[in-house]
Amino acid sequence: MTAAHEQRRLAALHEYELLDTPAGDELEAVVRVAALVAGVPFGTLNLIDENRQCQLTTTGFEGADSARTDSMCAVRFETGQVTYLPDASLDLAYTFNPWVTGLLGHVRFYFSAPLVTPQGYALGSLCVFDEKRHELSDEQIDRLRDLAQVLLGLFECRRQSRVNAELATEVREQHDELERAHADLGRAHAERAATIAELRRSNHELEQFAGVVSHDLAAPLTVVNGYLELLEENIRGSDEQSERWIGSAVRAVGRMHRLITSLLSYARAGHAPLRAEPARLGDLVDQALNDLRGHLDGATVVVQPDLPVIEADPTLIRQLLQNLLGNALKYRRTDRPCHVEVGASRDGGQWRVTVADNGVGIPKAQRERVFEMFAQVDPSAGKGYGVGLSTCERIVDRHGGRILAVETPGGGATVVFTLPITAS
């Protein structure tokens, strides 16, 4: 390989920020499953940088860094081809390697699947080995190749999650800047023009952010989930511990997918075209409840029979109602049946819509903060990501209304939002 290619390979490796960091449950689980598939006691995820082999996570032995010149995986990993040796001591490329001779190990059976990015850069390898001769079937070799692809998918998910967090922070900072600029609009015409330009730039960033989330991050998750399902089918009924490991990985993928969906909804609520038209509020409530029917679980939802016709974007208002009703059903109390009421009344030139529940409620000190991005009343509960109410606020704000949370008489939370009777 040329020096330029090696520099690009190292840049690709460092971009993932995996070296010298905890591997995490998902990567550890894949390495354990790889050793199980091969039927050997030892497995490792090796990353090769300028001078060393970093064993990011291992199973069956204590991993450590070693010189790249001593690495068995570094011999052929850049070819992109699987290395399968029933007895490594018989291959001249490995006969005198310290992992074979006894200086660092007594490897005999050796299998290595290179981890090659779609751009063609080899980062390292998924390696399984044993201290005695061992052979693999074609089916085992294919499954180990699949697991190497799963690792690459998890690498990409981790990288894109980091990029996503940085973008979310930037968008939040831009939103805060726009709010401050809006408060100063009355100072001068020049400031008003600058604020409009900033709003346009922020909307463009939100569109780019939505594209990154919907494609670059969601696509690798789909690949990872597909391979995990294949592994689950192959192992089902043969090894309970491996099934639990795979189940943990599947649940982690599911959590990330739900977070992506929430962030994408937030972005779309801010920049999607607003198409206001007459819509029956009662019909929109019914549609939201129909989508949530699997979450009712014995809850009683009372909808005011004479809900008005509003002038609004029906798609966005349905999303708003589904978020509010979903929260009411999710944050219920265990000591009494869940009860939710939806109503609306005219208040001067606007409609005042309420969604009231008898659940755990929102502490008074947090009733404004809950509408901030990623804000959660109880993060340890693990029931959400703090995006839903931020999305609701964006929808209401785009319609020219306001939203707030108050206490329900008798306990619980009531969310109130207003909509102008004549669209602005």
UniProtKB/TrEMBL annotation:
One of its GO terms (molecular function) is kinase activity. It catalyses: ATP + protein L-histidine = ADP + protein N-phospho-L-histidine. Coiled coil: none annotated. Residues 212-423 form the Histidine kinase domain. It is an enzyme of class 2 (transferase). This is Sensor-like histidine kinase SenX3. SUPFAM superfamilies: ATPase domain of HSP90 chaperone/DNA topoisomerase II/histidine kinase (SSF55874), GAF domain-like (SSF55781), Homodimeric domain of signal transducing histidine kinase (SSF47384). It is found in: Cell membrane. It comes from the Bacteria. Keywords: Kinase, Phosphoprotein, Transferase, Two-component regulatory system. Its EC number is 2.7.13.3. PROSITE patterns: HIS_KIN. Gene3D superfamilies: 1.10.287.130, 3.30.450.40, Histidine kinase-like ATPase, C-terminal domain. PANTHER family: BACTERIOPHYTOCHROME, TWO-COMPONENT HISTIDINE KINASE. InterPro entries: BphY/WalK/GraS-like, GAF-like_dom_sf, HATPase_C_sf, HATPase_dom, His_kinase_dom, HisK_dim/P_dom, HisK_dim/P_sf, Sig_transdc_His_kin-like_C. The keyword Kinase applies.
